[in-house]
Amino acid sequence: MALLNASYKQNRSRARLRLTYNLTCDESVPMKAQVYVSLKKSVLDPQGKTIHGALSKIGYTGLEEVRQGKYFEITLNSAISKTDAKAEVEKIAREVLTNPVIEEFHFSLEE
C-alpha cells in the first residue's frame, strides 16, 4: 500500500507556496502465517474418534471421519521478505510445532 505525503514549502523571495509530493511505500504491515498441524493418516486419532462418536450421538449424520489437529497463527516482522518468511515458518513448523514421526503440517502466508 502506498501513502501520499504532501509537504508545503514557502519560497521567501517570491512569497509563493510550492507543493511537493513524496510517494513512499508503507512497509509497516506485518505478514501473518497460518500453520495447520494434524496427525498423519497412518496414525490413529483417538480424540477424533471420540468427537465423531459424540457428534453421532447428538444427531449429526453423514459424518465419515473426524480428525483433530492444531492451528497456530504467527505474526512476522514487517522487515522480513516473503521468501525468507516462507523459509522461517517452514523451519519453525518442522522443528518446533510438529512431531515429524506422527504429525504433518501445511501453512499459508497472508500479507
General description of the model:
The protein is an alpha+beta fold and 111 residues long. It has one domain: Phosphoribosylformylglycinamidine synthase subunit PurS (Mth169, Chain: A). The protein contains two helices and five strands; from the N terminus they run E-E-E-H-E-H-E. The strands form two sheets. The protein has a three-stranded antiparallel β-sheet with strand order 4-3-5, with helices on one face. Strand 1 and strand 2 form a beta hairpin. The longest helix has 16 residues. The radius of gyration is 26 Å and the shape is elongated. 3% of the residues are buried. The N terminus is likely disordered.
| Arrangement of strands in the largest sheet | 4-3-5
Structural class: alpha+beta
Measured by DSSP, the beta-strand proportion falls in 35-45%
Number of domains: 1
Order of SSEs: EEEHEHE
* SS field, number of helical segments: 2
- What is the average per-residue confidence, as pLDDT, rounded to a whole number? 83
CATH T-level topology? Mth169, Chain: A
Q: Share of helix among residues?
A: 25-40%
- Coarse morphology: elongated
Report the span from N to C terminus. Answer: 11 Å
The CATH superfamily turns out to be Phosphoribosylformylglycinamidine synthase subunit PurS
> How does the major sheet shape up?
3 strands, antiparallel
Q: Tell me the name of the CATH class.
A: Alpha Beta
The CATH architecture can be named as 2-Layer Sandwich
